[in-house]
Design goal:
10% of the residues lie in helices and 34% in strands. The protein is mainly beta. A hairpin with a 2-residue loop joins strand 14 and strand 15. The longest helix has 16 residues.
Length: 285
């Protein structure tokens, strides 16, 4: 993660204000070609690093993270009980400006000892800390969490929510200090595949999408403040990781469009974002 000063730059403020206008003004430039990069190769966990609470870096306790039938599985069949052993699977390098897409589904039953709030619960951690800096007993990386939830068969339970281990953000011009905030997505019961995307524009803007529909947006992702200050250091970039929180889950696709080269050209960035968000990507069941 890169810490920034507490002052939000005038350029970023103007960009946040002007982005919807830029997106609406004209069709995206057809010469701007976007390409999805597959972070998961469908075969193994090459380029990924495991960190599980109470264990050393790269100790994949209980074979928690594995590849089966071309999917990343988070599984607990080798656990006697969960014992608060929260885990994360980190991609090898950080990103700053990007659109990440993940297709996931929950399976099976929660492992014995898993907390009630972690039922059919996982997440995509963005703007996260380097796993090498995590303590052995640390449960979650400092990060912004795009929370993934599955339905329980009866209650409303949206997905692509935001949670904040060691962080906070701005929504409607106010700093949000509560730990989690629900999105406006529908609830997905059973074992159906769901696609969640997150558009991340450095320290400016984060937008969550579910099956092609925008469900949440917020600004200025940042660290928790130090002392009595209202705002913390802004998060410009960081790691991406997938969670292990006690309920089995599968990921069949983890892909990204790196937008870093457009970060300093606001019009091109707006064009590419419009091109990407014009397509409603819905996963096949």
């Amino acid at each position: 993660m890169i810490k920034r000063g507490l002052t939000f730059s005038i350029l970023n403020v103007l960009f946040l204000i002007s982005l919807p206008i830029l997106l609406a003004l004209k069709s995206p430039d057809p010469k701007l070609k976007v390409k999805w990069e597959q972070l998961f190769n469908g075969k193994d966990l090459t380029d990924w690093t495991v960190k599980i609470r109470k264990h050393q870096l790269n100790e994949n306790f209980g074979n928690t993270f594995r590849v089966v039938d071309h999917k990343i599985q988070v599984n607990y069949d080798q656990y006697e009980k969960f014992d608060d052993q929260f885990g994360h699977l980190f991609y090898k390098k950080p990103f700053s400006y990007y659109l990440i897409g993940v297709e996931y589904r929950f399976t099976g039953n929660q492992v014995k000892g898993g907390p009630g709030w972690a039922f059919r619960n996982s997440g995509i951690m963005i703007h996260g800390q380097d796993p090498k800096t995590m303590k052995v007993d640390q449960d979650f990386p400092i990060s912004i969490e795009v929370q993934l939830l599955g339905g329980n068969g009866k209650d409303k339970r949206p997905t692509a929510n935001v949670c904040t281990p060691g962080t906070q953000y701005v929504l409607n011009n106010s700093v949000v200090k509560s730990h989690c905030l629900d999105s406006k997505s529908e609830t997905f019961h059973g074992d159906q595949w769901v696609r969640v995307e997150a558009l991340v524009l450095g320290d400016s803007l984060v937008v969550h999408y579910v099956n092609g529909e925008e469900v949440l947006r917020y600004q200025r992702p940042q660290l928790d403040p130090v002392g009595s200050t209202e705002e913390g250091a802004l998060l410009k970039s960081g790691t991406i990781s997938l969670q292990s929180e006690s309920h089995p889950v599968e990921f069949r696709k983890v892909e990204i469009v790196d937008l870093e080269k457009y970060a300093h050209d606001r019009q091109k960035l707006a064009d590419v974002v419009k091109q990407l968000t014009a397509e409603k990507r819905i996963p096949k069941q």
